[in-house]
Amino acid sequence: MRVESAEGIAFDIDVPVAVIGAGAAGLVAALAAHEAGAEVLVIERDPVPRGSTALSAGLVPAPGTRWQREAGLEDSPELFSADIMAKAKNEPDPALVARLAGSVGPALEWLSHRHGLPFSVITDFRYPGHSANRMHGLPSRSGEELVDRLARAVEAAGIPILCDATVDTIYTEGDAIRGLGLVRPDGSRERVACRALVLACNGYGGNKALVAQHVPELAGALYFGHEGNQGDALLWGEALGAATRHLSGHQGHGSVAHPHGILITWATVTEGGFQVNAEGRRFSNESKGYSEQAAEVLRQPDGLAVTVFDERIAGIARQFEDFRRAESAGAIVAADTIAELATRLHMPEAALAGTLDEVEALKREGRRDEFGRSFAGVPALEPPYRAVRVTGALFHTQGGLVVDRDARVLTQSGAPIPNLFAAGGAACGVSGTGPGGYLSGNGLLAAVALGRIAGQAAGAMAMA
């Protein structure tokens, strides 16, 4: 990744707004910039728009939406902000938290009203740390559907997406961005001039050296993000003198089916399930959150665990396309008795049965366990039982370039780089410095809310 002077450079084309990355952040930014009246070009290194969005469950947390009101759910940006700050132990920038919490609901309603995305709110379970049911998703509850629908909206708006094009150079003129250079698979090069640039190329989860530097505890973990997330935005930003923050922040996940590599919804835990290691014993407080659970799982023998739940919970989980795929792939083990389940999992029957008895006693008595998990009000598991073998994984990084309330990238002195914007994983998010600060949905919160903010500001600047 290079930053070079634009002096003497002949550009092949000139566009008002260029967006690097065609995941949720980039596509939302493109729609917003186009709505502001600017011509936009989206540049994507893959053959089709995918990004880490396609690997997610596609759920966006948003407070005070019409879908919540229709379901009789009480929520507000203030309550959402408080949840974000509490989960991240007050590490995030309160102003950015408030900005995103207040912007994401209107962004979803705009995507629904203007671009036909059929969101709905999940009402049958709540993710850890959220004080209200505020997760919104599309019918399949998959990130693939989210990015596909956004890509279709971009195409319907007449915004070109240049795929199979890898940006490797940013050209500057003084303190401002003048354009970018890209390379095609055949080695040919093109240079694109722009008046505003949006970095929407996520973080550095796919860059093993940067992960080892900033998140050493997950250096050897399965990476469940997009391999194209090589830290381009971070490296360009640092070369431009941009400020960075919370580079150790990340989202892990303690529930990726092994060896199938399919994300298993955390509802398997929050609705009354639990995790055991190969010895049939629990090892942590699973209710803290799926992000911090990744490292807990990886500390177990062979870096594996088993999530135990039942058919009632499986029924809830089947609203997610990923879970249905996991069932079709044979990742979900079914058994009528604990003895049968232990046999199928090659696990000590006495230990697994004893663990289940302990958990169910805690549920009946409404007590906390030795790890601090409260089982008050948690439904009992009933046969037939279900289980899935899982591993821990790194999904995406949460630290990045520091931005202001208009998604402008700031220098180390706090001044904005004149025409450079960042959204999604390219920007420092609202999860603080470690995995425990990640509140479910923070990744797509920054992608959708900050993507729209960046696009609006970049479009307005380009048309000024």
From TrEMBL:
It comes from the Bacteria. It holds the Pfam family FAD_binding_2. The keyword Metal-binding does not apply. One of its GO terms (molecular function) is oxidoreductase activity. Keywords: FAD, Flavoprotein, Oxidoreductase. Its cofactor is FAD. Gene3D superfamilies: FAD/NAD(P)-binding domain, Succinate dehydrogenase/fumarate reductase flavoprotein, catalytic domain. Residues 17-437 form the FAD-dependent oxidoreductase 2 FAD-binding domain. GO terms for biological process: steroid metabolic process. The keyword Nucleotidyltransferase does not apply. InterPro entries: FAD-dep_OxRdtase_2_FAD-bd, FAD-oxidoreductase_2, FAD/NAD-bd_sf, Succ_DH/fumarate_Rdtase_cat_sf. This is 3-ketosteroid dehydrogenase. It comes from Methylobacterium terrae. The lineage of its organism: Bacteria, Pseudomonadati, Pseudomonadota, Alphaproteobacteria, Hyphomicrobiales.
